[in-house]
Amino acid sequence: MTKKPYYITTPIYYPSAKLHIGNTYTTVAADALARFKRLRGYDVMLLTGTDEHGQKIQRIAEEKGVTPKEYVDEIVAGIKDLWKLMDISYDRFIRTTDDYHEKAVQDIFTKLYEQGDIYKSSYEGWYCTPCESFWTETQLVDGKCPDCGRPVEKAKEEAYFFKMSKYAPKLIEYIESHPDFIQPESRKNEMLNNFLRPGLQDLCVSRTTFNWGIPVKFDPKHVVYVWIDALTNYITAMGYGNDKYNDYNKYWPCDVHLIGKDILRFHTIYWPIMLMALGEPLPKHVFGHGWLLVDGGKMSKSKGNVVDPVVLVNNFGVDPVRYYLLREIPFGSDGLFNNEIFIKKINSDLANDLGNLVSRTAAMIGKYFDGVIPAPTDKEEIDDELIKLALDTPNQVDKAMDAFKIPEALDSIWNLIGRSNKYIDETTPWILAKSEDKKGRLGTVLYNLVESLRIISSLVASFLPTTSSKINEQLNIELTTWDSLSAFDGTRAGTMVKKGDAIFPRIDVDAKLAELDAIREQQMKESSAGDAKAEIKPIKPEITIDDFDKLDLRVVKVKECEPIKGAKKLLKLKVDLGGEERQVVSGIAQWYKPEDLVGKYVVLLANLKPVKLRGELSQGMILAAASEDESKLFAVTIPGDLPTGSTVS
Ligand code: ME8
Known about the structure:
Elements: E1 5-13, H1 21-39, E2 43-50, H2 55-64, H3 68-85, E3 92-95, H4 99-114, E4 118-128, E5 133-135, E6 153-162, H5 164-177, E7 182-183, H6 185-196, E8 203-204, E9 206-207, E10 223-224, H7 227-231, H8 233-236, H9 248-251, E11 256-260, H10 264-278, E12 286-289, E13 292-294, H11 309-316, H12 318-328, E14 335-337, H13 339-369, H14 381-402, H15 406-427, H16 429-432, H17 439-460, H18 465-475, H19 509-534, H20 545-549, E15 553-564, E16 567-577, E17 580-586, H21 594-597, E18 601-605, E19 611-613, E20 616-618, E21 621-622, E22 624-626, E23 633-635, E24 647-648
Parallel strand pairs: 1-2, 1-11, 2-3, 7-12, 11-12, 13-14
Antiparallel strand pairs: 4-5, 4-6, 6-8, 9-10, 15-16, 15-18, 15-24, 16-17, 18-21, 19-20, 22-23
Helix pairs in contact: 2-3, 5-10, 6-10, 11-12, 13-15, 13-17, 13-19, 14-15, 14-17, 15-17, 17-18
Bound molecules: ligand ME8.
Residues 11-14, 22-23, 25-26, 51, 230-231, 233, 259-260, 262-263, 291-292, 299 line the site of ligand ME8.
Subunit structure: Homodimer.
Function: Is required not only for elongation of protein synthesis but also for the initiation of all mRNA translation through initiator tRNA(fMet) aminoacylation.
Binding site for Zn(2+): 128, 131, 145, 148
């Protein structure tokens, strides 16, 4: 029988040097869903990847003196390592720099242009000249560039736009007639009421101010801007518009896009509209999970509260981290990550509840049956209760996972764990063991416990894969298929248990918290040392003496200096260059009053092509040295009376 396909996607990640615990959340959740659907017998495709283009990457690479591709290659390798560490069982990894994706994006863009959904116009926004970046009003921080903090100017740029408005009514109708398309429900209403119903603006889909992107095929001075490049990964990775893969018809439309709430608008408005324009079916579900917060709010480097998944995994193992994310954070709402709650949860839920159940069961089989799993011989009412719950739990988990209720699925499993521990207390095997005629009963109790643990372990495997393997090894569990969970007889009596170490050793909360604090402090120190270094701009590429020789630097004397009306930053200087008078406009008004400069000998780049600034001719440039944050600036002066026109070399 061919298996039914089930296609899950995670967002594709920006190549950032350090992913925090919040970034790993989506992918851990997607992995649990994928593993569970595999257990259910689906042919699962779990897609993840990286979103590698854009100006920011280009700039970081330039600062580091490497090509953008070299930069992202290194980061992507790190992201793949992180997914390995987090036990992510992805089936395919797409990079937006993959050739097949780039070609498909170019063709998609051309098709949308040719059919009239994309048109050329101009983009107006706030422009930061040093960063060569456009920003929207809302992106500005205190009216300044959010990247470098410098002033911005209103500017216009030629750009292509996508006619979003054309498809809005059709999308509203679709969302209304597919009530489970956007989940959770509250997010659906937010999309409809805050964005769609008030009217959609057309989306800017190209840029000309940087070139680290996919060139528009018919107008290559433009690169495709962010969302057409990023969102289409979900279909190109299946083979849409390329020959690399041939799985499009099998897997598309996907069963679910799992994403964080911050990118829900792009996935439930822009992406469905792009698909409508392409004539392709829409995803079955888009689930927007909440935000992972830390004490004091959002994680941020400056607050020093960024939770590093690598530190957690190295200290506690991967499964406790997965457990906390999947059980403790309500899937769909914001949730808190807190070290103390995390460690206490490990002690209570993992070490006490699950760990003890396994070790007590294995120890009693060791003690009373020489490690051989006994066969059941009888059945009492108290057994029925456990058996009924054990057989019902897989269905409860299935139902919860179908509704993307991951914490509820774990609640059901822990309910069975709790019931099994209670069963030990109720049946008191240590008392049964005292009388020879209760040996049969004791055998039944222990068999039932192993069998219950077999079901628990099979279900836990989707969430905590390593833990499940450890349980299976200790209790010699073989049957873990979905079908084997519908009968309470999968354990083979007569097999040996292998008592091992506690699967979750108890943790000393205070000692571990102190250790984690020390690690964080150390990381803060290292990162601020890194930042201090980063403040010094890297040295520009090497030049020859001939290159330098092209600059004509001269000593000039400032004869007159005055502000320019309406230009707060500029001063107009009249300088003497060996008998020749020149006018120079200089952006140093913030640091010098006009009278401070008159009479000074300064250095002029004399052969710079003249330009007009604010309508005033500037014939050269005064040299100045500035601190990186531009809080301090000094014009380069000559401390003596060299004849004007003398060369500087
Ligand atoms: O958004 N809590 O990539 P990304 C929970 N490239 N989730 C968080 C989080 C937090 N504190 N911080 C980040 C992008 N995330 C785009 C996606 S898809 C076509 C393009 C989540 O690397 C965030 O919501 O910035 C998103 O789901 C994921 O991390 C990747 O974010």
